[in-house]
Structure formats: C-alpha cells, structure tokens
Amino acid sequence: MLRRIASRCARGLGAGGGARPAVGLCHPGRSSSSRSSDARRNQPPSSEFVARPVGVCSMMRLPVQASPEGLDAAFVGVPLDIGTSNRPGARFGPRRIREESVMLRTANPSTGALPFQSLMVADLGDVNVNLYNLLDSCRLIREAYQKIVAAGCIPLTLGGDHTITYPILQALAKKHGPVGLLHVDAHMDTADKALGEKLYHGTPFRRCVDEGLLDCKRVVQIGIRGSAMTLDPYRYSRSQGFRVVPAEDCWMKSLVPLMGEVRQQMGGRPIYISFDIDGLDPAYAPGTGTPETAGLTPSQALEIIRGCQGLNVVGCDLVEVSPPYDPFGNTALLAANLLFEMLCALPKVMVV
C-alpha cells in the first residue's frame, strides 16, 4: 500500500497540483529553532522529529511537486533502461535511490555547504517514459526538461540508463548553447551505433557531438577503463578535443589536483555533470549493468564532485544504478550521497 501511495504521489511532471509534503499526517513541522529564512524553503525533515520510515518515498523526503515553477533546483527521476546493452534494471534506479536517500541530512560539514538554506528544492517525480520506444522516450524526456530549464530550475537527475543524458543535453543546450561536460564513467559512450541502431546507452555523447550540444574543448571524461575492440579506444574522444583521464591515471592518488585543472579548463561558462555509477569500482557499486573492474573509489568520486564547487553547473545526472544486482542497496545509497554532493556544488549554494 505504501509503495502504491508513493508512486501516485511521485508520478511526475504534468501530474497536476502543487507541492505535497512527503511526511506523514502527524508531521510536527520544523523545530522552533529554525530560522525564518529557512521556513520559506523546503527542508528535508529531521529524524529527530519524523521517523525515517515515515512518509512518501521522495528524494530526501522533500515535498513532491508537479511543476518546476518557483524552484531553484529539483530532483527528477527518469526510469528508463531500454537503451542498455548488458544487464537491465536501471528503470528501478530512481525508486531505490529515493528509498536510500532517507539517510541524508540537510548540511554538508565536509564542504560547509548549506543547500537548503540557499535554494528552493523539491522532487518533481518521474518523467513518464515510453518503455516500448526509445526514440519516443527521448522526445518525452527532452520536452519535460525543456519545461524545467525554462522555469530557471536546475535538474538533478536520477537515472535510468545513460541514454537519457542525450535528450537532457538537448534541452539544456537549447537554453545555454553548447555546454561543457564533466563525465565520470568506465566507458566513453561515444560509439556510433550497435546492431544497426544509433541510439542506446553507448552513443549519447556521439549524438551530442553530432548535434553541436557540447563545447568539446570543455569536455573531460574520467575513470575510463576496461577491455576494448582496438588498442586506441580514446581516438574519437581525443579527436573531438575531449580530455580523457583513464582510471589507471587515477589509481592510488587524490584527484584534487586533477579537479584544479578541470576547473581552469571549464572556466565560468555552463557545464553539465554526468556521473555513471559504473565509474566506481564494482566492489563499491555492484548494482549496475556494465561493471568494469579496477575503477574509482567513493572518496575519489567525492573529490570530483566537490571539485566542481564554484563552477557554473546547469544540470547533473547520476545514471546506471540497477538495483536488482545489489539487493542490499549500497549502490543506491552511494548514488543518493553523490546526488546530494551535486546539489551542494550548485551555484548560489551558501558555503560557510
């Protein structure tokens, strides 16, 4: 029953109605010590006052809102996995990430970020994709994100397979022009086609280049690894001007110096963060469709995202979480934490 209620309350864009609280009927509200400035913004409920299992299953138990109007940033689910080439299940990623996000709190002591004192944030539910037609799903995603971007809201996306980044970037580029890209992944996702099809989760950035959606001199791909069909798998990316950082170049070291270089490369123009959970080693994130051994660590993932603080981030996604391959939920818990870190890195977030 609770799962059915949660799915009804988080159906997604265009469902009608305004924001709905994600906590139970007996929610006692914010404590009297909350500052009046905070009271004007949505706040995830504290477990001191509302038990973690209580409420609708939204991201961080934030209010579920049908419209992006009035929001500075929003979590959006895209439960699509018909673009996968190996193990499916990423359609269940948004739901499981939301479930695990109950452990998240409002402040980031490590970075000093206070996102909920700075931004109006809500959960916009899920885009209503077409699980029988990948091209139509991309159209639905693009149209949904055009509405989000037009409202001045920064989307933080819960995937879904990596195909979804293509229509999202179509929507963002329509507003911002070609954007920079910080892409964390085991794979470059720049293939031209597979089985005769030019659209699947291995081709999104090739399609983005074809359509001029990326500022190719400001594209960085981190964590690339694994066997390949040639001895020069980076050729296409580097020929376009991308910087490719193989996983081997990240082993046993902090990525803080790398991110200093990335910040200089990105400058003050708009950038998008696309984080495939398989960029991490499967020892930490087994719940994904195309795992590759010897990947990044969670601490390196934090260094990458925290290294984006101060950049002009116009959107983010966390993709390829496939819950059936991690029944304990650790992959989704890690994904939820990385999405929170992305929220903390957005422009206008107060840092103390």
Describe the structure.
One of its GO terms (molecular function) is arginase activity. Its EC number is 3.5.3.1, 3.5.3.17, 3.5.3.7. It catalyses: 4-guanidinobutanoate + H2O = urea + 4-aminobutanoate; L-arginine + H2O = urea + L-ornithine; taurocyamine + H2O = urea + taurine; 3-guanidinopropanoate + H2O = urea + beta-alanine. With 352 residues, the protein is of the alpha/beta class. The protein has a single domain, classed as Arginase, Chain A (3-Layer(aba) Sandwich). The protein is built from ten helices and ten strands. The strands form two sheets. It has an eight-stranded parallel beta sheet with strand order 3-1-4-9-8-5-6-7, with helices on both faces. Strands 2-10 form a two-stranded antiparallel ribbon. α4 packs parallel to α5, α5 packs parallel to α6 and α9 runs parallel beside α10. The chain is globular, with a radius of gyration of 19 Å. The relative contact order is 0.16. The N terminus is likely disordered.
Write the layout of secondary structure elements.
Elements (H helix, E strand, L loop, with lengths): L1 H8 L26 H4 L33 E6 L14 H8 L12 E2 L6 E6 L7 H17 L3 E6 L5 H12 L2 E6 L19 H7 L3 E11 L10 H5 L3 E4 L9 H11 L4 E6 L21 H9 L6 E7 L10 H15 L5 E2 L1
Parallel strand pairs: 1-3, 1-4, 4-9, 5-6, 5-8, 6-7, 8-9
Antiparallel strand pairs: 2-10
Helix pairs in contact: 3-10, 4-5, 5-6, 9-10
Arithmetic mean of pLDDT: 92
| CATH class category label | Alpha Beta
Largest sheet: 8 strands, parallel
CATH architecture: 3-Layer(aba) Sandwich
Helix and strand composition category: alpha/beta
Instruction: Give helix and strand order, one letter per element, not per position.
Output: HHEHEEHEHEHEHEHEHEHE
* Total individual domains: 1
- Cα-based radius of gyration, to the nearest Å: 19 Å
Strand order of the largest sheet: 3-1-4-9-8-5-6-7
Shape: globular
Q: Compute the number of helices.
A: 10
CATH superfamily: Ureohydrolase domain
Pathway: Nitrogen metabolism; urea cycle; L-ornithine and urea from L-arginine: step 1/1
Family: Belongs to the arginase family. Agmatinase subfamily.
GO molecular function, one term: metal ion binding
Binding site for Mn(2+): 162, 185, 187, 189, 276, 278
